[in-house]
């Protein structure tokens, strides 16, 4: 089916459409009404998207059943669309991209500005017959974005009040002492948490080199989590976002939460260079009285993740093992000195001679002292593993047959792995 051109609107039609759009905001309408009105009157495909190009509202094309040009544009070259969105946000005005993609779509993006922030973007896609049609669509898209800003600004005021209330309830739930069971259950219910349910806490902390992170960072994290985990209770506490997730303690839930934290880190890293996301995941606990325990475990996991950045992308409290004890050493440099004392000669030898005796030692212990499994991972023979272990022990000056020496070597390897494997950074 052929795709019709975007309608060329005269001045009277433009004024009428702008008046209708303003009326939607006055009548407490929503984004869906805005994009539907733009799509229907201007004969284009329209949508509101967030920074990650997730669609918040979508308006159909000029005719029912027509191919979705906007969806095609978003799917064919997301990087180009993202660059256009970024430029529109920086310039704080609507921008167009004519003849975009294989179907020569004309794409217009207008930032939806609430205060100093571009909180979302209004996109329209169509085929403009000439420059007059393109200029008209830019004007309509920009006005629709301004009306959308009124709607989202109103929502933001409500959201700020609701967020403050959630934060105060959460703080009372996990930080206030001398609470009765009735108080705990009452606060939990106000947060949407039913007593007796199991839950885990995902703590997403924002580390900014300037100190306190900008509200836009934690707002972005909160929105990413809330839209992808609708059953969770999400609390924005300024420098961290706490997510209480109901559900059984299964590996699938842990994987989903780990993936969610990874998405937050990647999205924030792309939008705010220099900002670091550190995430911690608690064990699963039952009952509202254990929410404070879940939060404390997630917080400790985050602290340990900061100390040992080489552990994993998301620090899972249940998987920490000996690192829970190692993290109690306040002076991280002392951990580096211990590692150098035990393995310094070996690591220096490997570095100077291009050998991998230290790697063999680490794989051997990781495979529960099995030369066969270590050999399989290292793609060599078990006899070669045995030889490398003897040489590693000789160079390091340790006796792998001694319990205390073996324990010291394993602790040094765990420290080295947790600190990211950069012994030079911890040797001073």
Total helical segments: 15
Strand content: 15-25%
Which descriptor suits the 3D outline? elongated
Taking the alpha carbons of the first and last residues, their distance comes to: 70 Å
SSE arrangement, N to C:
HHEEHHEEEHHEHEEHEEHEHHHHHH
Helix and strand composition category: alpha+beta
- Tell me roughly what share of residues is in helical segments: 40-55%
The stretches of 5 or more residues where confidence is low (pLDDT under 50) are 1-5, 422-428
Report the sheet with the most strands, covering strand number, pairing sense and barrel closure.
6 strands, mixed
* Average pLDDT over all residues: 80
Radius of gyration: 28 Å
DSSP strand count: 11
For this entry, give a set of tags.
428 residues, alpha+beta, six-stranded mixed β-sheet, five-stranded antiparallel β-sheet, 15 helices, 54% helix, elongated, disordered N terminus, disordered C terminus
Plain-language structure description:
The structure is a single chain. The protein is of the alpha+beta class. The chain has helices at residues 11-26, 31-42, 69-76, 78-91, 131-174, 181-190, 215-228, 251-271, 291-307, 323-326, 332-353, 357-366, 371-378, 382-396, 403-418; strands spanning 45-49, 55-59, 95-100, 105-114, 117-126, 198-207, 233-236, 240-246, 276-281, 285-286, 314-316. Helix 7 runs antiparallel to helix 8 and helix 12 (357-366) crosses helix 14 (382-396).
